[in-house]
Specification:
The protein is an alpha/beta fold. It is 32% helix and 13% strand. It has 2 domains: 315 residues, 3-Layer(aba) Sandwich (Alkaline Phosphatase, subunit A); 71 residues, Arylsulfatase, C-terminal domain. The chain contains 16 helices and 15 strands. The strands form 3 sheets. The chain has a 9-stranded mixed beta sheet with strand order 2-10-9-1-8-4-5-6-7, with helices on both faces. A hairpin with a 4-residue loop joins strand 14 and strand 15. It binds 2-deoxy-6-O-sulfo-2-(sulfoamino)-alpha-D-glucopyranose and calcium ion.
Length: 538
Amino acid sequence: MDGAKLFICRMLPFRFIPLLACLLGALFAAERPNILFIFSDDHARRAISAYGADLAEIAPTPNIDRLSKEGALFRQSFCANSICGPVRASVMTGLHSHKNGLMRNDSGAFDSSQWNFAKELRSAGYTTAAVGKWHLKSDPTGFDFWEVYPNQGSYYNPVFRKMDGSRVGEMGYCTDIVIGKATKWLDRRDKDKPFLLMCQFKAPHRTFCPPLRHLGAFDDVTIPEPPTLFDDYANRSKTLAENEMEIDRHMHWQYDLQVRKDEPGAAGLLPNRFPASEYGRMNEEQKAKWDAYYGPKNQEFLKKLAAGKLSEKDVVRWKYQRYLKNYLGAVKAVDESVGKLLAYLDKHNLTDNTVVIYGSDQGFFLGEHGWFDKRWMFEESLEMPFLIRWPGVVKPGLRPDGMIQNIDYAPTFLEMAGLKPPHKLDGESFVPLLKGETPRDWREAIYYAYYELGEHNVPQHYGVRTKRYKLFHLPNHREWQLFDLEKDPHELLDQSNNPEYAEVRKELEVIYHRLRKQYDAPSYEKYGPGTFKWDPDK
Ligand code: SGN
Ligand code: CA
């Protein structure tokens, strides 16, 4: 089309050219693709069929899988800091956490006055919207429309924050309501402009609540157990055993099933009936459905337990099945919503000119190492699912091999729209990877930094991952961990002090220090408690 523009311009007297360029610019603006960014919360790759893991036959994701057939699926896709707020801040800014200021969920409100890619798209003529989970505490900026959950949001009858500062309560299930808001905005958006829509789900985040219509959807299935469900944490840092995210020790069936009522603690995972929990949010009709489903199942479990028929391992196995079935029920509704969005694009002739992305803010442990949660630089939590369909650009079935991170999304989205970031970002546009090319100098390793101290007792750690190896440092424990992902895919054996890996370790340390320098990572002392704000002048 550039050729056509040039031809028309050449045919005209000189003085008309600026005016015409302007008119043609507006006309051809429609060619810039719409960007539909669908982002769920804590959706592990293992629970997406297209990733072909052991749950492939069970994971209820036909619509997400459709993207993998009609577009690309990335395996080398990782987060830079496996925790919600920081991931989202890096998505918006293209910067590592220490530069955008949101290093931890408890870092305070994200400074939303800083540059983000939505602002850039909007000022270049896009109409922009964000709905659902936001979790940055400050209001979204760069959007013509937004309606987001306060903080984490709720599964049943959730509340939304609106642009005018008010809050509105909605009846129903979170994912269904978000999709309703998203399609409503699509209906009434300014259709003369390309759009950016960030549609962000709370599900399947803890407390893993399925919509009531999917209770029982997995009753006839036995979910396969990961080989590390009963990990003994040997041969690695002792901090692994100090975790507080074990299905065994930290999923409290006693509270969840209301055998003990004194201290709900971190209950709500199985899930429970405490008034302050999701159960307390439901109306009588919803509660009746919930009770009719979970009540008899809980009684059956308690009866077996009382009869001494269950060993400690049996109890873990029972919790694991309950946890995964609830989680997959929530995933099922996410996938249905992806289906609704894809059908919307088809129906309104938008498919050909819309980039659709499906991703999630981090991975999640679905029983691997005996855990639920994320935070660690171990594979299940570090990996981000990333699927993308871009008709005419991404070849259907493409499986790019380059390493990408959430810091890359902002520059990538800008390049899709023909724009460049106005300043240097940490991330790089991976549009070349989408076109099936891997630039020669594409990164050989990703940098990772986790700064939280409290929840789930995961220590601060900083590291690098190449395609084959992972090295991370636990500065507060003066320890390093090194894993050979080819020989040890489950990461059960730390090789950092093995003389056979001395050379590998040296090389990885070089990469680690090089990346820390490249990203201006601050010294460890600054990683302590309290909010750390990166200052480029210090
Ligand atoms: C809550 C959860 C944690 C979870 C964090 C962060 N506890 O605090 O289990 O790790 O969110 O999740 S809960 O009792 O409130 O469910 S994140 O995805 O928002 O980073
Ligand atoms: Ca999350």
